[in-house]
Amino acid sequence: MKYVLDTNAVSELMRGNPAMLARLRSAKKADVAIPEPVLAELEYGIARLPASRRKRLLLDQLATVKAAIGRAPWTDGVSTAFGSIKAVLERRGARLEDLDIAIAAHAVAAGAILVTDDVGHLSRVDGLGVENWSRPGAPPSGDGPATAATARRRRGSPSA
């Protein structure tokens, strides 16, 4: 696995964002995964909606994404990364929501890049490579070097 998708990245896929779809298509299927906390956030967001055509559409779109993209499992390594990341952030006074930390921990534990629109927000996590696929013009997966920001964060401590 090379890429872990954040909640906002999956939302962009569900919206049909052309840049996201192009980047996803350029990646090998086995290189992209969705952590379970992302699915939990999406399920919660949809469950909050009243019964409607929009809710049914979102459920259908989520089912399509779930069928097309594999999962990043919650392993002992993810739990270790979660604990380390949260402790380091708390010591710095730079807290993140637990689900954001859990999602970042999946990427850190797998040595993967987190695909997110919250690059600034999640760049506080040392050792986490981040990329934003939702904007046109980013190089396709696997083409060329990682961005300077990604390379810089990847050199940091893998445990935060």
Average pLDDT figure: 87
What fold name goes in the CATH topology slot?
Answer: Rossmann fold
Provide the CATH top-level class.
Alpha Beta
Sheet with most strands: strand arrangement: 3-2-1-4-5
Describe the protein:
The protein has 160 residues and is of the alpha/beta class. It has one domain: 3-Layer(aba) Sandwich (Rossmann fold). It contains eight helices and five strands, in the order E-H-H-E-H-H-E-H-H-E-H-E-H. The protein has a five-stranded parallel sheet. Strand 4, helix 7 and strand 5 form a beta-alpha-beta unit. The longest helix is centred in the middle third of the chain and has 17 residues, at 76-92. 36% of the residues are buried.
Structure characteristics:
160 residues, alpha/beta, 55% helix
Secondary structure: elements and pairs:
Blueprint (H helix, E strand, L loop, with lengths): L2 E3 L1 H9 L2 H9 L5 E4 H12 L5 H16 L1 E3 L3 H17 L5 H13 L2 E3 L3 H4 L6 E3 L16 H8 L5
Parallel strand pairs: 1-2, 1-4, 2-3, 4-5
Helix pairs in contact: 1-4, 3-4, 3-6, 5-6
Structure in a nutshell:
With 160 residues, the chain is α/β, with parallel strands linked by helices.
